[in-house]
Amino acid sequence: NSIMERIMEKRSAEGLPAKAIQWGAVGEVGLVADMAEDKIDMEIGGTLQQRISSCIQEMDRLMSCDAPIVASMVVAEKRAGGASKNIIEAVMNIMSIKDLKTVSMESTLADIGMDSLMAVEIKQVLERDFDLVLSPQDLRTLSFAKLLKLDEDRKKAETDRQQAEEEGFEIGMQMLLRNLGDEEHSDQTIMKLPTASDQGCPVLLIPGLEGVAGKVYGTMVEAINAPVYILQLMATLECDDVPSIVDLVIEDVCSKVFSGLKEYTIV
Questions:
Q1: Quick one: which of 146, 29, 14, 138 has its CA closest to 68?
Q2: CA separation, residue 9 to residues 19, 152, 214 (Å)
Q3: Cβ pair 68, 11 in contact under 8 A
Q4: What is the SS3 assignment for 236-263?
Q5: 248 burial type by CB count under 10 A (0-12 exposed, 13-18 middle, 19+ buried)
Q6: SS3 for 259?
Q7: The pLDDT value given to residue 183
Q8: pLDDT band at residue 62, thresholds of 50, 70 and 90?
Q9: Model confidence pLDDT, tens digit, residues 211-250
Q10: Within a 10 A sphere around the Cβ of 181, how many other Cβ atoms?
Q11: Is residue 138 predicted with pLDDT exceeding 70?
Q12: What does the pLDDT read at residue 174?
């Protein structure tokens, strides 16, 4: 079909007559009629059967349009709640198998009765509903035992993903709590942190966006042999820019940290 369509495109580009029609499932004749029996609403590969009368009616419109490649099919509407809960059930529905006990778990689906139309629909359903992409070779060797294993692996992967998300959320909350400041002392512009020694060149820490002395800072500086102070910005919430923040805190910084000193460190 693909080769024929490329030929039609080439003929059309050369100004020659060319038309390829992509039909969906045509009802009332052939393999589809044998499969469907009296079920005209049977869904095949996401499409319904198109009656012969409809095909003939559409033929005139398709032949008279300019495009070299056209298509006609009846797209099935998605039914609410129609999706199968698991892979096994989905494939059983496509193959019209009522009881799994009536088939061999190790036999390939082809041996059980999967034809080309069923194979296409199974491939589409697995990709659309279960995010499973199978190659043609995988599909030919597929059995219910393999489907069961795929379903178990998929559920395990989903469980692992949810668990990882929950753990990530918990870690994020822990980090957030570590960075939250001590509410009791958050109104202090300059706060001294406990260190190993108060001797040496003083260090002034500038906090991040949180603007307060979170627990993480205490852990960071507890082994430092120098006095460490941290600047808290709760008093600057009404400030609109950096210069106004500096004007508000500079007096406290100079009097409590840098008073009379020639050397100091700002981090």
A1: 14
A2: 8, 46, 68
A3: yes
A4: HCCCCCHHHHHHHHHHHHHHHCCCCCCC
A5: middle
A6: coil
A7: 55
A8: very high
A9: 676 666 777 777 788 888 877 777 777 778 888 878 877 7
A10: 20
A11: yes
A12: 63
**Has this prediction a pTM greater than 0.70?**
no
The C-alpha atoms of residue 88 and residue 172 are separated, in whole angstroms, by 38
Beta strand 228-231 pairing with 203-205: parallel
Beta-carbon contacts of residue 243 (< 8 Å; ≥ 6 apart): none
In the chain the first and final C-alpha atoms are separated, in Å, by 69
Q: What is the mean pLDDT of residues 110-136?
A: 83
Q: What is each CA distance from 218 to 90, 91, 188, 189, in whole angstroms?
A: 57, 59, 16, 16
User: Rounded to 5 degrees, what are φ and ψ at 193?
Assistant: -100, 145
Give the C-alpha distances (Å, rounded to integers) separating 112 from 32, 96, 97, 107, 144: 18, 11, 10, 7, 10
For residue 80, count other CB atoms closer than 10 A to its CB: 6
The number of helices, as runs of H, and strands, as runs of E, in the chain is 10, 8
Nearest-angstrom CA–CA distance, 48 and 32: 10
Structure tokens at 205: 């820490």
Determine how many CB atoms are found less than 10 A away from the CB of residue 169. Answer: 10
Burial class (CB in 10 A: 0-12, 13-18, 19+), 110: middle
Distance CA 193, CA 232 (A): 12
CA distance 218 to 214: 7
